[in-house]
Known about the structure:
Two copies of one chain form a homodimer.
Chain A lengths: L5 H23 L8 H13 L4 H8 L3 H13 L3 E5 L7 E5 L1 H22 L4 H19 L1
Antiparallel strand pairs in A: 1-2
Helix pairs in contact in A: 2-3, 2-4, 2-5, 3-4
Chain A binds a DNA duplex (23 and 23 nucleotides) through α1, α2, α3 and α4.
Amino acid sequence: MSQPSPGQAELASALRLALLRTARRLRSQRVNTAVTLSQLSALATVCKCGPLSAGEIAAIERVQPPSMTKILASLESAGWVQRSSHPDDRRQSIIEITPAGRDLLAEETRARDEWLAKRLVEFSAEDLRKLGEAVEVLDRLGSE
Amino acid sequence: MSQPSPGQAELASALRLALLRTARRLRSQRVNTAVTLSQLSALATVCKCGPLSAGEIAAIERVQPPSMTKILASLESAGWVQRSSHPDDRRQSIIEITPAGRDLLAEETRARDEWLAKRLVEFSAEDLRKLGEAVEVLDRLGSE
DNA sequence: TATTGTTATACTCTATAACTATA
DNA sequence: TATAGTTATAGAGTATAACAATA
């Protein structure tokens, strides 16, 4: 593995500041005050990746187990996920999304995306192409 | 102005999740426990945009004035910024970076970028091009 | 002993509401 | 009255350390 080049260090610096500010705006953009962005993200993972244990969700979301405990407690008390016992290991429980959770996820995703999409319509086709190409790279950067 | 197209809604959704996770990882990557990412971001703004009032920094950083009050208080008590009185308006003070602040900023930026740059070396030239092109678009998205 | 998850605790980050000082 | 900034307070988000239950 080579050392970071000067160009990479500059890119890293610019990317870090750009991501901080954009994420700050996305997080503050609360649509429904009943659910937060972190809860929504965990709910999206449970919906997409099927029934999972708490540890598995924490690993996918890249947070520590105690953080996920809190998120899951709030999702469960709101009725958006439900737990069942693991057949072989009584330490674990299996967490899955409920129909109400699916409804909430769909509605919130639509509302939050609308806020972002409204800003995106002001961007050129060229800008959108650049963002679209970067999403896949960012995904790898955020989950490695 | 047109309505968001289906393609824009999908891009918005994918971008939102990618940004959340990547930003989460960047924020948790603490190098020096003496300074936080938000403090560093404000310090970078004061360094780059010259002497500013508290309100101006808050506007550039896109946070509310009370949030900036806290950030500036910590930066000032650490000796990384200093205040002087505004010549015409005694409600305001003028905030500028100190030499110690400049040193801290250079050192911290280097250390934090190293973490990101180390990951970037594993990416292809094509990936880096995509990220580089997106940075400018993200900047506009985060500061509009 | 090792693993899974939770509880206890603390710190960062940010906001709104109420207030002070100045214009 | 209006504006710039601060103080008071609270909630979201996350972590580490210590613990309990189970494997």
